[in-house]
Amino acid sequence: MFDVLAADLTEEQARSLVFVFLASTLGAVLSRWHLRLVLPTVVVEIMLGIIIGPAVLGLAEVDVYIEFLSDFGLALLFFFAGVEVIEHHVPRSALRRGTLGWGMSLAIGIACGVLLDRLGVDVVWWLLAVALATTALGTLVPILSDAKLLPTDLGRAVLGTGVAGEFWPIIFISVFLTGVYGAVTEVVLLVAFALVVGGAAAVARRARPPRLLRIVRDTLHTTGQAGVRASVFVLALLVFLAADAGFEFVLGAFAAGVLVGLVLDTPDGKVVRVRLEGIGFGFLVPVYFVVTGMTFDLDSLLTIEGLVLAAVFLTLLLVSRGASALLWLRDLGGRRTASLALFGATGLPLIVAIVGIGQERGDISDGVGASLIGAGMISVLVYPFVATRLVGTPSPVEREADEY
User: Fold this and answer.
1) Is 297 left (phi over 0), alpha (psi -120 to 50) or beta?
2) How far apart are CA 323 and CA 328, in angstroms?
3) What is the DSSP string of 216-259?
4) Domain residues of the chain, as ranges?
5) Which residues does 150 contact at the CB level (< 8 Å), separation at least 6?
6) DSSP codes, 55-80
7) Which of 67, 80, 103, 302 is the most buried (most CB within 10 A)?
8) 185 pLDDT higher than 70
9) pLDDT in tens, 24-52
């Protein structure tokens, strides 16, 4: 087996794999190196990818092996976005308000996109609109948890905003970034796909064969890992079905996450989720972000035009998502509403994915994409930090009052 692998894998490809995994490891270590300065891991991974890539040291290049791992990492990124929708048990009222707020953000994003398109910025207006309406929920949850904000009214508002800021952009790009059959047919196919996934979810939650449950429990701590294997199978199946129907494969990955999240919403399921996170965030998802750095157009970003455009995008992220925070003003008050606006404007993982898909279609230039990703990187570095400092850590009395 290893002789065959060695025959197919060139020295340059093997070296690239080594440096990609080195960057992945260093990303986790360096982001937590200083106790008082915790950096978002995804930003460190992208920066390390830039360093080892052609733009700086040229130690690694993207080949067919790394590209496959990167695509798998992207699928898992959207898979875990779907799991998060279920895992956090966001109240329906928060989801409804978050969805309404996302509609406001999209409308503002569309206006900004049309304006920039007419000013000659090389990006399709609706692509920019969706990118500006995203929220990095997976990045925010650990921050909220560490700041003791997750069980508060502000935490629930961020969850409602964040779920909407992940769910609806994925649905939107699945319809409008495919263009295989036309918008109307895409919507019909999307509804059919949703019915299939919804039906499978209903069956999976109600029909729990005792023998199958026993096998899952018995293999939780053995080499069998039936729950993990079944989850990966569901991911592969729905990615295939989505791609076969003409959608972006990320829709299938997200739907698989929702389905698996529903099935694993049990005490035993938590162990399976931990195993899946080990595969995803310990192996494949970091590869995707390192590769994003390796293919990042650093030269375009570091021009005056690129930096100005990044500053514009950073501001527009706050404007579009900040406006949606006004829906919570009566409940949260001015200070916490401002904090919600900053949390909601934190968006990088989906921005990276949207830019990547848009570049493949020719809907956004490499330079504009670099500025947009640069704005996303700054948003995850700055906005959550300012937001937490704005509200501080709630006292036990405040947390109890919020929970009540």
Assistant:
1) beta
2) 10
3) HHHTTTSS--HHHHHHHHHHHHHHHHHHHTTS-HHHHHHHHHHH
4) 2-403
5) 141, 144, 159
6) TTT------HHHHHHHHHHHHHHHHH
7) 80
8) no
9) 999 989 888 876 766 778 888 989 999 99
Selection from 364, 379, 310, 316 nearest residue 105 by Cα: 316
How far apart CA 348 and CA 371 sit, in angstroms, is 12
Rounded to 5 degrees, what are φ and ψ at 33?
-65, -40
- The model's pLDDT over 288-321, given as tens digits with 9 standing for 90+, comes to 989 989 988 888 888 999 999 999 999 999 999 8
Query: Token digits for 220?
Result: 């939780």
The Cα–Cα gap between 77 and 286 comes to 10
The rounded distance, in Å, linking the Cα atoms of 187 and 310 is 33
Residue 342 near residue 318 (C-beta atoms within 8 A): yes
Q: 123 - beta bridge partners?
A: 364
For the ranges 91-100, 120-129, 132-141, 216-225, which has the lowest average pLDDT? 216-225
Of 141-155, 165-179, 217-231, 236-250, the poorest mean pLDDT is in: 165-179
Residue whose token pair is 């059919």: 192
- On whether the 2-403 domain is CATH 1.20.1530.20, my answer is yes
C-alpha torsion sign, points 51, 56, 61, 62: positive
Contact 317, 128 (CB under 8 A): no
